[in-house]
Fold this sequence. Notes:
This protein has about 240 residues and is mainly alpha-helical. It has eleven helices and no strands.
Amino acid sequence: MIRRIDQRHEDSRDRARVAAELSEEARLLTETTLPLTIPATKPPAAETPVGDRAHGNGNGNGNGNSHRNGKRNGQAGSLPGRSAAERALAALDTALAAQPDSVPLLLERATQLGSMGRYAASRADLEHALLLDPDNVTVRSALGIVLLRKGLWSCAVPHLRKVVEIESWSPTAWFYLGEALNHVDELDAALAAYVRAAEIDPLHAKALYGQGVVLDRLRRPDDAAALYRRSREVAAR
């Protein structure tokens, strides 16, 4: 936990340490928070139950022989010990083999890959989907988040700018744009993005953290300290 700041007694070294702690916390929050703009619903082609039935006997009747047939045919999807994530990915691979240009399936697989930490493969699917549907804001948002997770801040910025143009109501979109801009040292623009996120959602603690970090970088320590306190108050609710 970050300790309380006492403006009357803190010295410059103390303030710098607090700023560093908060900057690290903001970074960790970015890395561990899943993007909220990726849809939770699954496309129709991916709704076949994942597991043995997804690798059944080919007639789609789910008659309980799928595990036996899958084992005889050497299908990896029915091997014991495979994780649910791996089985889900295998089902999506099968669906995309039949529909390689399905944007919903590409997005679904990218989401699955991202949840498994396979960001390069997730990025490839999202870039393919974006070529097929350049106006798909969900795909563009997910691509921006994946680029953030890979540390490709400058690559993420144009995608996230486009997202906030379309979804200007989204505090999450503004927050992630602020994160990217902060890391490419566009401090004024980063501060504006964090401020906008907190205007839309006054209880967005991470956006308040971000404001504090940028204000410290802009050498406005008193303003930064006020935002740090506010962010802790909001997070404690």
